Amino acid sequence: MKSNGVTYPFGQCPRLVDGDVDICQSNTIIRHVARKHGLYGSGEAEMAAVDQIIDGVESIRGVYLKLIYGDELKEEAKSAYQATHIAPDSSTGRNSGAHFAFLEQLLARNGGGSGFIVGGSLTAADLCVWEIVDLHLRIFKEEVTAAYPLLVAHHGRIAGLPGIAEYLASPARLDKVNNNNLG
User: Fold this and answer.
1) Are strands 21-24 and 15-18 parallel, antiparallel or unpaired?
2) Rounded distance, CA 56 to CA 128, Å?
3) Verdict on whether the full-model pTM lies above 0.90
4) pLDDT band at residue 2, thresholds of 50, 70 and 90?
5) Spatial distance between the Cα atoms of 62 and 50, rounded to a whole number of angstroms
6) Cα distance between the two ends of the chain
7) Is 8 helix (H, G, I), strand (E, B) or coil?
8) What is the enclosing helix (H) or strand (E) of 125?
9) Contact 10, 34 (CB under 8 A)
10) Distance between CA 2 and CA 42 in Å, rounded?
């Protein structure tokens, strides 16, 4: 892969080939699939909100990956991570914009948090939020559940949608989602 700069311009997966579209990079793939399948919101304001949330989730993912692969989920690292990126009282501190409180606030601003995170229908932003919450519920279930009831309820709603519920109950759903069996 790394030596094939044409097929893998960033030297890594994931890669999607969809007809004439041949792209790499996770968020590029997410946005392409969302546009193609009507999961990008309706109108410029919703599309911008979807982008904002996808990028906010990516901020959390970046620090999550350091916790998993760099710090290997050591207890001291988990405590520091929880204190910086999950504990509600740390949202105004130095966290590089990577905090669950921000996602909870965005969800609450859209209809009180009882539906989708952007607009009135499922978007790629909902799926990205679902996935990052799911990863964190595997490691910080008590902390996330106690601090972010709207995100946890949203996670449950998205998990119950047709197609998603079936996938989650299938053998295709991985027990361990990280290459080092952590998380």
Assistant:
1) antiparallel
2) 10
3) yes
4) low
5) 18
6) 26
7) coil
8) helix 124-147
9) no
10) 38
